[in-house]
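Worked Example 4.2. Consider the chain below.
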Amino acid sequence: MRFPPTWAPALRALLLAFLSLAASLHAQGPPGAAEVRERYVKREVSIRMRDGTPLFTAIYTPRDTTRRYPIMLMRTPYGVAPYGADAYPAALGPWKAFQDDGYIFVNQDVRGRYMSEGYYQFMTPYIVDKHGAKDVDESTDTYDTIDWVVKNVVGNNGRVGTWGNSAPGFFVAAGLPDAHPAHKAAYPSAPMIDWYLGDDRHHNGALTLAQTFNFLSSFDQPRTGLVNSYPARPTFATSDGYNFFLRAGPTKNLSQGQLSGKVAFWDSIMAHPNYDAYWQKRGIWKHVKNIKPAVLTVGGWYDSEDPYGPLRLNQSLEEMSASTKRTFVMGPWTHGAWNRGENDTLGVLKFGSRTGTFFRDSIGFPFFSCELKDRCSKALPKVAAFQTGANQWRTFDAWPPKAAVKTPIYLRENGSLAYAKPTTPSAQDTYVSDPARPVPYTSQVSFGYYQLYPIEDQRFASRRPDVLVYQTPVLDQDLTLAGPIGVNLQIASTGSDADFIVKVIDVWPDMPMAGRGGSGGMDGFEQLVKGDVYRARWRRSLEKPIPLSPGKPDSVTYELHDVLHTFKKGHRLMVHVQSTWFPLIDRNPQTFVPNINTADTSAFRAATMTVFRSSTKPSHLVLPVLP
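Applying the procedure from the previous section yields the following structure tokens:
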């Protein structure tokens, strides 16, 4: 298109205006940055730890100096961007209410990440006996940072709260032991607590293959000097994780391929398949004794990344720090979702209320207001949990609720579940598990974690011949479970190793075509409530694996993570038993090898699995039934 010459001045002016606007927007930063800039003054400092290591720290102080403010400290391996003394972020704090109310915000790159010096460790081990300035861990770094900011940041009121979600949540939890006197409140949100027993990297020691490979492909890349950015996550030839990892073959092929010699922590995972000293010393939950700060621990029932951390941390605080002021919250959320959004729905599920807004307004913000500003309008509950299925908030004096009754429910004939123990002396079900055709964990195309798999319709799995399906009759009254679900499987295999995945499922009733209205998507919906894996090699000890004797009966006993869920009248409770869950979990070769991470293709073989359901070998679950 050719424009008339008379248009040239107007076009030139329009272009200049556009460029001026673009430059202005770039200078102001992301949306919201102008508001932060207007209300806060930023400075960047390096704070030296007791061993002399400087940690890069960004400090945002309110421009209003007529009053004193508490400090909100967030320590992170993900960077405290934007970098530069005149570069401002879109928001400060856990959510905007903190920014509006007035706090001093301190954000810090942890050791060895981005602009901080030193060596970065995943889940830095806590040093129990410290003998000098060289003995440093996350508790000492948190202490030293707090000590510096309360002494050097003008206008603070001498009180500090720590906060962070996921990996930053680990740094909050790791900063609890030996806390600084000014450390008054801590908010570990979806904290990583033990990367072998649960959370991102493993489920009961079984490798979370897709997510671990996907995450470490970019996060653990080595840096050269101090950097304010890391390489972007690499792209792969397909987004179909099931096909990608199946074509890749055994896990060792990934170590020799895309990750060969590039990712130190991946190599460590490969070298430590058992719960040895490497993993044991990284379990921060073992060290939360006599904690002084008030603690708000929060997690999501449907968190696909760190479902274990909040539950394990709360349990340890209950056992080791009974006098600590604390509140424990579990809601119907995915990973960290409670920090943003209304959360009145999740996928096809509808909760009937704005659960995220409720948490932030009624628990999260009041917690810090009380501990750091003495604005204590009401006492917070010790436990607040959202009861899924019934869609209501409940409060308890302890978790799991003391009223929950452990109730066995047995795998029975014809795919049934019953509270009555089997009477038949010999009964069993079998299926063939083939590592070459593993059961997918999701029906969706996903490379890492599919975020909604914890609530996904399980009909795709129910229809497979290598999945055993058991279910109750239609319930004639509501059934509420509150706490961990016990699994006791009496099994045998023609192989010398095996995985057993158990899933608890809420089966919605069928809906006649004429009566569906707007709820047609829930017709016969098989909603996953909770599921997890256990590897038979660790049935006696996570530290010392032993093989199965082919064909010989044995047992596998473990727990599924906690739930607070109501199976409504008219629904059914269903149980799946299977031996693959791919690529959420790596494949078991089904022949015993010292280290599955280094197993060759020849080790992977199909095997026939037997699940006994007889009077002498009664496979069953233990339901925590809330009267």
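Residues 8-28 form the longest helix (21 residues). The two ends are 76 Å apart (CA to CA). Compare this with Example 4.1 before moving on.
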